[in-house]
Specification:
The complex is a heterodimer of chains A (154) and B (102).
Chain A (H helix, E strand, L loop, with lengths): L6 H16 L8 H21 L3 H24 L3 E2 L6 H25 L4 H30 L6
Chain B lengths: L10 H11 L3 E3 H8 L3 H14 L2 E8 L2 E8 L1 H28 L1
Antiparallel strand pairs in B: 1-3, 2-3
Helix pairs in contact in B: 1-3
Classes of the chains: A mainly alpha (154), B alpha+beta (102).
Amino acid sequence: MDESLTPAEALALAGRAQAAAERPVPMPDWYGPGIGAVFLAQGLVIGAALQFDLEWLLIIGYAMAGPLIGALAGAASRAGGVAKRPMPGVWRLALATVLVVASIEFGLGALGWWAGLPLLLVGLVAGGAAGGVFWLAARRINRQILRAYPEGGR
Amino acid sequence: MTGLDPNLHHPTRLTVLAFLSGCQEAEFSAVRDYCQVSDSVLSKTAAVLDELGYVKVKKGYVGKRPRTWLAASRAGRAALSGHLAALQQLASAAEAAAAEGV
């Protein structure tokens, strides 16, 4: 690199570097299915706990998603070599995602329970549906990022 | 000018710190690829910025592979912000002087 820069050149250099680090990149391909699998497993565990009346398994079922999703999200945020800073409003988006996915999971669960279906099956279907919705949403977000920043692809 | 930081006059240092200020942390190879410098140049630059307290260097492993992560410290972000503000003033002054000369 040239050692002498005018103020304008130095500003442009720093601006480009900051923008490159801030540019959104798609989530890794395993992120959507990975989180989806967590919801599927959670539905299965909760369904099994309710069907076989196992309180300890129910506690595991409710508590398991947070740490697993946190670990996967942490790994995904570092997968491209650059851990992004949280964008403004990302917490609202994350909360909305959790609420939508939880509504699907619990809504289907309640429907299955009301219909008198086996709770293990209900849990499996509800978890699978919630996981599938999350996977589709992650794919859609990735496609939007790739469309907006074609050069930002991995 | 008070905000200008002589430690950031070097383009590689400025680029590395600006890149790191745009993210939480970045892996050594990602910074090297963006800055288009060799491992040794980035290593020396990171060491200088680390010594100045502008960058935090964290070494770890992913499986058996060693990984180095770099992150801009609070002091580094503040120094960069002051430096950029001072550069902006200089650039504006130069622009104004050029306009007056026309």
